[in-house]
Amino acid sequence: MITPSPAPAKSAYLPGVPLLRVLGATAVVYTHLASWYTARGRAWTVADLLNVSLVESLHLIKDLEVVGVSLFLLVTGLVVTQAATKETPGQFGARRAVRILPALWVAVAVAFPLVNSGLLRPGEGTGPVGPLTLLSNMTLVEFFLSPHVILIGSTWTLVVQVAFYAFTALTIPILRRWPWLVPALGATVCSVVLSLVWDARGMAYEWIGVIAAYMPMIFIGQVVALARSGRMPTWAAAALGTGHFLLFVKADMIGRYVAIGDARPRTLFVVVLVVLVTMNANGRLASHPATSTLAARTYSLYLVHQMALYPVLDALFPVWGELPALAVGLAVTVVATEVVHRFVEAPVVRRYRDWEKRRRQRPAPRHRRAPESRGLARS
Amino acid sequence: MSDRASPRAPLSLDMARGLGACLVLYSYVVALRPDELGSQLTVVGTVRAWLNRPLGIGEDFGFFGLALLLVAGGYLAAAAAAESGVRGVLGRLLAVYPPFAFAVTVAALLSQLGAPTLSVPRDAEAGLSDWLASLALLGNVRASSVVLLELSWITAAEVLFVLCTALLAPVLRRAPWAPVVVKLLVVAVVVASGTEASGVHRGLTLVVLYTSFLLVGELAWAVRAGRLPTWAGVLLGCSSWLCLAWAERKYRELFGWWNALALFYAAIVFVLMVRFWGGRRSGRATGWLADRAYALVFLQGTVGWAVLDLLHRLVPVELAVPLALLSTVGVAEISHWLVERPAGRLARRLSGSTSGGGWTPDDDDTVVLRAVRT
Fold first, then answer.
1. H/E/C letters for each residue in B277-331?
2. What is the model's pLDDT at position A369?
3. Compositionally biased, Basic residues: which spans (chain A) (predicted)?
4. Backbone phi, then psi, for B332, in 5-degree steps?
5. Low-confidence ranges of chain A (pLDDT < 70)
6. Is residue B331 part of a domain?
7. What is the distance between the alpha carbons of residues A180 and A238, in angstroms, rounded to a whole number?
8. Is A263's CB within 8 Å of B55's CB?
9. pLDDT of B108 over the 90 cut
10. For B278, what's the count of Cα atoms within 13 Å in the CB-facing half-sphere?
11. What is the tens place of the pLDDT at every residue in A315-366?
């Protein structure tokens, strides 16, 4: 029997998380860059080299597809679980919304004219699009509509993350008292949902299935975080983690939700091992200021890299050649990331935290005394 | 984490060797041989569908188990070299070779009785010369056509690695990185030059290639003991892995076996074991299993297969498999008491100390601890 463990027994701090975030961001940008080359029928020496040496030897998916996404989802489970144990459900939901929505809105608003002018191909569907599509992209509702036009392809993982945030907010009281029960419940819910929707038709069912297929990745991050902080015995974490991995294998067997390549479970396992090895890293690289600076900007980079890179490469590659086009494309990506982080993401989070602080410091309103009722209550 | 301050890793080493042995037993006795006999266990099919195929671990975890055993062997050899130099590291031979020799002898006797064993060629009828050639590991360098134990390549790789480590042990104290770099260079050069080789040269090349598994273990020890910075360990570890990954593309014997993936898994799992269980002492069960790891690995293809072949015609395979496993464990116990323990005592006597020098099944802790103190 697993006993309730209300407070963390060990330090939950994971010094390697910023490094993992940087690795995840690098992998995502690399994969999308390689995809650009493939889509335009061009060869890229870097991708060829990595595919021959690393990808084929580890039997992963070409261009390290899904490595970055798996890393991000696992890190989400690691980090969000730590936060959830310290916050109320409302506070948790509001903080996550403030963290992801404003930057998403700005990125989608910038992608809107780029898609309509033909400078950027949408992630799914074909442009041009109207204001309603813009609105449904900003709220992520577009994923559940058919036919749909997704302005920024990589935002699909936010659908999975938002579902996990909602689940976590609802289960915070359970997470505090019986931490092991939350990932166990998560496995049950994912399993039931996959059983219900695997043969249902319609875009909404399709995306509900995608959420149920990918949530196990985040739950694996969650069980690692709970075991690391001493709130769950290692054997229980291993059992629950294995359960979630097998759920992902099941989703892969269904084939409808995890359809790229035949190596997704293997990629997930490799990434889990990398996370376990790296999460406690506290060497020079992990603790370098550049790592934390880059890590803070990974969400902005995740949102803007495709719309910064692709139009620049499309315009400059045929004229200037590979290296100058790549250099300018990456420079534009860095600038766009910095702008979104510095002027949208960071200030909004800062102001919200300031508002939270002021709210906490405000003296509590005095209640009018009700001697009769107090007396009654006492008696 | 106090990994550096407390570098003892007995539980991690015992876990690695014990897990490696269990996976080999599962692979050859529970999964592969019943398959060959046409009576597959249901659980094996399920495990293959849900774990082996998704993870890309072939041969029913067997090669992964052997990889774990070799990585742990490299770790122990490096620790012994640091603790008591040439004599200490040569003591490792007395840990590896005697259970192998015992199993080869059992295999030769069983083949005389006509029992099927895991040999090359399969079910070979061995004479005295084959027994002697197998003992001398000649089949692994293709100097003999019969190999009485198919898995004897792990002994060949480990013996070669131990001899190289002993040769380079005097350099270890002055330049801790030198032995690893030299061994890595040798592996790279030999493997690169052997792609078109045949006969003895090719056999030797493959044995040299498999020492890269032990090299990964040595690197894990060097980083843990503070002899090598982490970045250098990672870099050299990746280079060792790349040697195998490259060879997998160039050597037809390795093509399609996904050995590089197995080594990657084994290396990371071993590093995680050392990292998270490095400071814990081994329990009785894990210690017992680790002490008999080599005997179990070598005897499963002789005793285990012979018993399985005998029983599967008489009883259901669900009963024959546990009985074959029990028989293997029983003979491994005999090997441990008759061969491994006396060999351990001899190793201690040769190294000239009562507490360490040679490796024995009982003194891993001492070796690892003392290795780091020096």
1. HCCCCCCHHHHHHHHCHHHHHHHHHHHHHHHHHHHCCCCCHHHHHHHHHHHHHHH
2. 53
3. 358-369
4. -65, -35
5. 1-12, 258-261, 363-379
6. yes
7. 11
8. no
9. yes
10. 23
11. 999 999 999 999 999 999 999 999 999 999 999 999 999 999 998 887 666 5
Token duo for residue A357: 């602080």
Nearest CA in chain B to A274: B268
Is residue B159 domain-resident?
yes
Residue B370 has pLDDT above 80, yes or no: no
Residue range of the domain that includes B247 = 10-373
To 5 degrees, how large is the angle CA A365–CA A370–CA A374? 110
User: Which residues are paired to B147 by β-bridges?
Assistant: B120
Q: Which of B232, B198, B214, B279 is nearest to B75 (CA)?
A: B214
Nearest Cβ partner for A58 among B231, B261, B275: B261
Asked if B1's CB is within 8 angstroms of A57's CB, the reply is: no
Structure tokens belonging to residue B325:
């496993």
Name the amino acid, one letter, at A188. T
Contact A273 B245 (CB under 8 A): no
Q: Which is more confidently placed, B5 or B164?
A: B164
Q: For residues A237 and A228, give the distance between their C-alpha atoms in angstroms, rounded to a whole number.
A: 9
Q: What is the pLDDT of residues B347-367, one digit of tens each?
A: 877 766 544 333 343 344 444
CA Rg, chain A, in Å?
A: 22
Q: Give B73-107 pLDDT, tens digit per residue.
A: 999 999 988 887 888 888 889 999 999 999 999 99
Closest CA to B278 of B2, B4, B12: B12
Is residue B2 domain-resident?
no
Q: Which of B2, B46, B51, B263 to mutate to test the interface with A (most CBs of A within 10 A)?
A: B51
- Residue B198 sits at the chain A interface (C-beta within 8 Å): no
Is there a contact between B334 and B102 (Cβ–Cβ < 8 Å)? no
Q: Write the single-letter amino acid at B234.
A: V
Which positions in chain B touch A273 (Cβ < 8 Å)?
A: 265, 268-269, 272
Tokens of B286: 């894990």
Q: What is the least distance, in Å, from the CA of A264 to any CA of chain B?
A: 8
Closest CA relative to residue B39, chosen from B324, B256, B326? B324
Q: Are A277 and A20 in contact (CB under 8 A)?
A: no
Pairwise CB contact (< 8 Å): A273 & B265: yes
A249 and B50 within 8 Å at the Cβ level: the answer is: yes
Chain B residue whose CA is closest to A284: B231
Could you say which residues from 45 to 104 on chain B have a Cβ atom under 8 Å away from some Cβ of chain A? 50, 54-56
A59 contact B CB<8A: yes
* Domains contained in chain B, number: 1
**A57 touching B, CB under 8 A?**
yes
**Interchain contact, A283 vs B230, CB within 8 Å:** yes
